[in-house]
Amino acid sequence: MRILHIIASADPRTGGPIEGLRLAADLMAEWGHGTEIVTLDAPEAAFLRHWPHQVHGVGRWVKRYGYTPALAKWVARHAARFDVAVVHGLWNHASVGGGQGLRRSGLPYLVFAHGMMDPWFRQTYPLKHLAKQAFWTLWQGRVLREARAVLFTTETEMRRARHSFVGHGYREETVAFGSGQPPAGDAEQRAAFGAVLPALAGRRYLLFLGRLHPKKGCDLLIEAFAGTARTHPHLDLVIAGPDQAGLKARLAGLAERAGIAPRVHWPGMLTGAAKWGAFRGAEVFILPSHQENFAIAVAEALSCSCPVLITDKVNIWRIVERAGAGLVRADSLAGVRALLAAYLDLPEAQRAGMRLAARTAFETHFSAERAAADLLMHLEEAAR
pLDDT class for 15, splitting at 50, 70, 90? Predict the structure, then answer.
């Protein structure tokens, strides 16, 4: 099959959706299926040159929403070369303009929601939600209504999405999502991470890895760690990820006022060997998020036998808890404090067992191979 993916950006800093797309495309290629990607990125964007699959950047007229008439024209002009398409995400012109081009051409397509219909956004940003409802009624809802299916990564995400917007019904399906296997080279990867943060040499650390965004709960993590730091003087906190929302200064201020600034480390976005080394060396991975439909970093941590501490707003929490691969609490300051205390109070034998369970959970539920095979099944059904 020839598969077209439409997504706002191929920039790796945008998080899990583009990483999941890359992993799926790699495996599809091994299985004999071709992938092309069209984005709203500027054609000359440097990161496009490093993609292993063909990426077409059409540019954008408006930075935030990404409007450009070029997208729908490109899709309509090239649709005959493909058997099926996938539209990734909502609330930008990649989904609306891409959907217009797909409807114009008659190419069957799926929509991958990627957590963007969660009612947390309605509750947290009510005025923005009113604008989104109007946008849904006029444009966005039509894209989902006319798709062969709308894909959700968990039953929880699918159920929660039903209560977000009024009008425009759609066919819903769940699809597996996951992470690639960590590359070989444990010692080299740990050394690469150590080169990024030499101040951590010989120290244990907790790891947060992801975009610095209000929904991720990093403020709760810093406040909770302030208490933990007093009773665990040899434990540090690493907060790694791109600061796209401009939160780092406020979070660093929290750490300063709590007196823990020297023990909180900010390496920015980690990639390649340094990223895998961070997972391999971490005492535990923590994601105190208020909303997360999947969280690919959780799967990456599990793949490295790193246990995870997550909230019950990360939609895969039930799988993690049943597998014994981590601990789960509420997305509140009390909940995050309880996560840290419960894990650090475990006997070493139980922590070792949790590391084994983490790897087993990854292989059973979150491997990229399983996710790609599930997506391929949906694509073949849509193409038929």
Answer: confident
Task: Tell me what pLDDT residue 16 has.
Answer: 80
Question: Span 162-169, mean pLDDT?
Answer: 92
Burial 304-333, CB ≥16 within 10 A → b, else e:
bbbbbbbbebbbbbebbeebbbbbbbebeb
Neighbours of 75 (CB within 10 A): 28
Confidence of residue 261 (pLDDT cuts 50, 70, 90): very high
Question: What's the pLDDT at 114?
Answer: 92
Q: With H, G, I as helix, E, B as strand and everything else as coil, classify residue 204.
A: strand
What is the distance between the alpha carbons of residues 177 and 382, in angstroms, rounded to a whole number?
Answer: 18
The three-point CA angle 132-136-141 to 5° equals 150
pLDDT digits (tens, 9 = 90+) for 236-251: 999 999 997 899 999 9
Within 13 Å and on the Cβ side, how many CA atoms surround 11?
A: 15
Q: Note the pTM of the prediction, 2 decimals.
A: 0.89
Would you state the pLDDT for residue 349?
96
202: its two tokens: 């010989």
CA distance 171 to 145: 7
Report d(CA 318, CA 327) in Å as an integer. 10
| Average confidence score pLDDT of the chain | 95
Distance CA 120, CA 249 (A): 25
**DSSP-assigned letters across all residues of 97-147:** HHHHHHHHHT--EEEE-TTTT-HHHHHH-HHHHHHHHHHIIIIIHHHHHTS
**What is the crossing angle of helices 248-257 and 218-231, to 10°?**
30
Say whether 175 sits in a helix, a strand or coil: coil
Structure tokens at 162: 């039903």
The residue count for the chain: 384
Q: Using an 8 Å Cβ cutoff, are 155 and 316 in contact? A: no
User: Are residues 97 and 18 in contact, defined by beta-carbon separation less than 8 angstroms?
Assistant: no
